[in-house]
């Protein structure tokens, strides 16, 4: 979330983050990132599969098992955190890509405008040269309009990404609340297990006596 917020606002720290991401995407960086993402995704699928197995076991037993409830809470927390991590990583990658595209578009627009100005200033030739220059100016202006429209579309996408980032921030707050609740449920279930163990121990002692 901190990286996403840094990419959304123009600050000196944003340039440093962009340079770091550029270096990460060079050489073996993409392969390493894909490997880590694939590993996290496999672990996520494993957690979901374990949750499904525990749910089916609970349905077959007809009554919830405290141990299964603890394991279900743990797998649910792991799956939520890993899924959230993968989604945030995808958002960071897309934001970095859009920022680079906007920079390239702006540089291309500036070069096209300079070339158009130089052509406008150099209209001192015969009629054929003037006609050719006029056609080239028209094509350049059309290209500039297309680039401006594409730049506006990129800006809208960046704003949409900012809105998604705010929504993700709110969702992360909900995940933190859910995490606190799961920890509390986990502690309660552990207390119940300890109470059950103590009861079983006392019953065994009474039987032995």
UniProtKB/TrEMBL annotation:
Which Gene Ontology terms of cellular component type are present? endoplasmic reticulum membrane
- Chief location category: endoplasmic reticulum
Topology relative to the lipid bilayer, per the entry, is: Multi-pass membrane protein
Q: Which residues cross the membrane?
A: none
What InterPro entries does UniProt report for this protein, alphabetically? BAP29/BAP31 (IPR008417)
Q: Which residues form a coiled coil?
A: 95-199
Q: Name one GO biological process term.
A: protein localization to endoplasmic reticulum exit site
Q: Which UniProt keywords apply?
A: Apoptosis, Coiled coil, Endoplasmic reticulum, ER-Golgi transport, Membrane, Protein transport, Transmembrane, Transmembrane helix, Transport
Can you tell me which family this protein belongs to?
Belongs to the BCAP29/BCAP31 family.
Its name, as the record gives it, is Endoplasmic reticulum transmembrane protein
């Amino acid at each position: 979330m901190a990286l996403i917020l840094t990419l959304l606002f123009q600050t000196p720290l944003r340039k440093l983050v962009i340079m770091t991401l550029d270096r990460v995407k060079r050489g073996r960086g993409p392969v390493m990132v894909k490997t880590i993402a694939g590993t996290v995704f496999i672990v996520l699928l494993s957690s979901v599969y374990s949750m499904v197995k525990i749910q089916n076991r609970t349905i077959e037993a007809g009554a919830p098992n405290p141990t299964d409830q603890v394991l279900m809470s743990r797998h649910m927390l792991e799956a939520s955190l890993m899924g959230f991590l993968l989604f945030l990583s995808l958002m960071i990658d897309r934001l970095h890509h859009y920022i680079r595209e906007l920079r390239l578009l702006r540089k291309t627009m500036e070069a096209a405008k300079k070339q158009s100005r130089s052509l406008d200033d150099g209209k001192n030739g015969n009629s054929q040269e003037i006609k050719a220059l006029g056609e080239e100016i028209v094509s350049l202006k059309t290209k500039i309009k297309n680039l401006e429209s594409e730049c506006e579309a990129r800006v809208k996408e960046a704003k949409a990404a900012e809105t998604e980032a705010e929504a993700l921030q709110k969702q992360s707050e909900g995940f933190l609340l859910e995490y606190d609740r799961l920890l509390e449920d986990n502690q309660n279930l552990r207390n119940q297990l300890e109470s059950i163990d103590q009861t079983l121990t006392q019953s065994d002692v009474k039987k032995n006596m």
